[in-house]
Amino acid sequence: MNLLTSVFAQSGGQLIAPAPVSGEVSEAVAQVTGPAVDWWGLLPLIILGAGALLLLTVSSLLRKRAPTSFYAIWTVTVASAAAISAIPLWARVQGWETVLWWDNTPESFGPFSTVGNMVGIDGFSVFLVITICLAVALTALVADGYLRREGLDGPSLYVLMMLSAAGGVMMATANDLIMVFLGLETLSIAVYVLAAMHLKRAQSQEAGLKYFVLGSFSSSFFLYGIAMIYGATGSTNLVAIKDFMSEVVPVQNGLLLLGLAFMLVGLAFKVSAVPFHAWSPDVYDGAPTPVVAFMASGVKIAAFAGIVRIFVLTFDNYGSTWRPIVYALAILSMVVGAALAIVQSDVKRMLAFSSISHAGFILMAVEAASAEGNAAVLFYLATYTFMVVGTFTIVTLVGRTGDNRHALRDYRGLARTSPALAAALTVFLFAQAGIPFTAGFFAKFYAVIAAVNASAIPLAVIAMVSAVIAAFLYLRLVVMVFMAGGDDGNDGPVPKRTDRIAVPAGAGLVIGICLVVTIGYGLFPDALVAPAREGQPALVRSAEPAVAAPAIPTTP
Amino acid sequence: MAVSVLAAESAGFPILPALIFVPVLGAIIIALIPRSRPELHRQVAIVTGLLTFVFAVWMLVQFETGDPGYQFVVSQTWVESLDIKFFLGVDGISLFLVVLTGFLFPIALFAAKPDNDPKGYYAWLTLLMAGCMGAFMALDLFLFFLMFEITLVPLYMLIGKWGHGRRVYAATKFLLYTMLGSAFMLVAIVSLAVLAKAGDGGAISFDFTKIIASDSLSQSAGRWLFLGMAIAFAVKVPAFPFHTWLPDAHTEAPTAGSIDLAGILLKLGTYGFLRFGLELFPEAAVWFAPVMLTIATIGIIYGGIVAAMQKNLKRLVAYSSLAHMGFALMGIFALNVEGIEGSVLVMINHGISTGALFILLGFLYQRRHTYEISSLKGIAKVAPVFAGLFTLVMLSSIGLPGLNGFVGEFLVLLGTFVSNRWWAVVATSGVIIAALYLLWAYQRVFNGEPDEENATFPDLKLSERLVMVPLVILIVFLGVYPKPVLDRIEPSVQRVVNRVELQVERYDQPVTQDGRELDRSAIDAAAEKAREARDGEAKEPAVATEVGR
Prior knowledge:
The structure holds two protein chains of two kinds. Chain A is mainly alpha-helical. Chain A has helices spanning about 1-15, 40-60, 70-95, 125-150, 155-170, 175-195, 200-235, 240-245, 255-270, 280-285, 290-315, 320-340, 345-370, 370-400, 415, 420-435, 440-455, 455-485, 505-525, 525-535, and strands at about 100, 100-105, 110-115, 120. In chain A, β1 and β2 form a beta hairpin. The radius of gyration of chain A is 24 Å and the shape is globular. Chain B is mostly helical. Chain B has a two-stranded antiparallel sheet with strand order 1-2. In chain B, α2 (about 15-30) runs antiparallel to α5 (about 120-135) and α3 packs parallel to α5 (about 120-135).
């Protein structure tokens, strides 16, 4: 709870002060010295949180209905602002002297921690912050047309999504287990509500409830893990834990191991790794489709950020303990995800299992526990965001009013009614399958390189074989879209012109952006690999001392 | 080798990239032309195909005959972080496969028209051409893998959308089989790059020539990696236990798909064995040679026997492909100049003969809408020209001396007999089986009195005859005078064989070509000489790189 007290102390003393409060305080008030806060480092978080609350306030004060697309444009603006505010951080972390025309003159270059080591700003976190913000912006554009189509227009989805993203940003920048937990809860609670957002579908409510019950269960696992780690190491701060472990070799580390295991369970649930995946098909199936796009991108990013920060970064010397577990999780996720996806007849469930399989691939890169592995994680998460948002945008459109036409047969003959949509869907599916010249291929490729470099060749082989199994599922969809028929060669009745699917401007824009990114990074991966490699996580002890306990006022 | 590679680089027109990008451009143009102008799609596709063919012939003309190294080399960094390059080059081994690709695609375009949606059909077909070209010319392992893999998508679409009968099943089976093989190849390529550390300062590199030059693989690593790649290539060839996708894919594919699949795509497998199996892992290739020869022999015999049992003409030709590709595979693992030369020749000849057979079967299907042998009868009576052409092509496929099929198979058997006698003896019976199944099928389809349904079988139209002309010319020419082709193949093959002999201690041929016992001291002296030559060359690449830039 250090953060809360510190912020409280700040605002109590002097509003938004960049320097620690050290002024004269009247004798009657206890003197509380808060930690130094680098507000630049918190800016993305603040923008997202403030943007959400402001939207809520403004929309409740409006007498008339908000103008069309007002909420979506607001959200896109806020998310873009948050992403842009992260660019100076990136420049600072990477030591860029100038950003375009603007002279970058921070106090110091390189990764840094702030708020008493609670928040860590490094290449890894800044990269993911930007990715999460992009996911929010893209999803908001899709949600715009969707909500109007479903007659659910209102600010709530956008507000919740921004809050959820704020939680994701907290997780990505967390340098303290408590911070990770705060982020996890902020993120999850908002997403529980988002899943139940579609008031007219019972499945949506069911999905929300299911997600909530299982999700809180996993959160409690995580919290319990934190408590054990605290017991074992005497701190919840990642910097302190790492320092502690570099100095002390515990004779009995049962508590520590149990804590690690519990934390892994909590996070593996969020990334829906097998065997903690059971929620995801049901939730993906029931939740409103744009929300699913956000869950598959934003939530996954945040959870993987947590995994990398805690396991790869902090507990790297316990690699021999957790890496085999992640190894197994990766294999199970890849194989089970791909195999179960094949037998689904509902596209959203199918994509849920495919996203489980993708999580396995990312876990494979995590398992490498190397700089290359981290770069592969970043590359995968960034490209997967665009692939999966693009896919679910099309699923949203094909779902039509009511959001329930998601059976495989509903895609029959899509190439005839909407050839452009069909072509885009094919690109996204091929990208997910890892066909060359798409970003998805390089994502898998870098993950495999990381695994091979870490001498996990069996893992790499299993990964590629499961990619082939998964390819079959994407092909099933492509077959439906293009060939429309069974083996009898009968394509069925030719769909009429009136079956054409209307594409709202926002969704069209998202599909366009995702297409450009998916193909662009498939042709020129260097453009993304370079930042992914520079985006390494780091644990830096901030120059300021950690928060001291509030001094007890001495009564004379 | 590096010296000759880069010295031959022409500063002029980048002909190899043109061979890839002209079809890609064509495909894009076709995709942009609206559906309401179907005739334009075909015209653009034909122009693209012919233009590529012209480039390919131009390359053939400019090719330096005696040079064993890579010519027309183009190298452009693509992914800097992993030293992945757009690295293309052609040597004697790939030269004719590239020309064959440029030749068969326009032929396929002329020979068959799609029955629906011409836009997609022509776009995918031209894209397939680009992929095949790229795969034969790529000298970067990663680029090769990309091209090898990207050819799957167009062919999948062609079979799945424009095929017959159980097309979706056949297309999916084809794609999954090949992708499964590729999965192993990808891991092998990545592991090779990681293990070889051939880049600057021990970094990862996918550069084929650099990896060869680094020679840093341990014996067991080399064998495992060879195995990984061999699975991918064996599926593609297809070699015996991995072949089951082929008959399905061929039977259901549209005519153009069959021509390109049999004529070109299968060669990717044997070409891969030769270029990436043999040159990268010579030790493993020698170690695995008996296994590969056995697989090849089984393929030859089994393919022939199963072909004889087929009731469907297209399936019959598909199984005959299995047998022919067995010969190509066998020649490679004979591991001597005759065998490998023969193998390259078998690849080319099989492309021409089987391509021609599939074209003729396409004409047959247009007229009768069936491939079933039992419902065809007495066609020679009503369509003499068709029957005559079929006879010629069939005899070439059987391997009649004087026609192209004979030369390659003869060289393969000769080479194998020298190095591994008994395999050659068994495989020779495959030639007889080929005569059996093709002649038997011919007899049932063409001889006798035509029944009611076949009596109205129209003979070939002028346009159809014209399509067959270049194929027939090549069949006869290559059978009578294969020397120009062999002259260009031989130096590169010699280079590969030298490398195998150099790399593998104690590797030698059991007998010389005259059948005498080998003189070991002579071999050792030759090896020593070659080693010196190589060491001398090793100092030069620095200079050569300068030239290259």
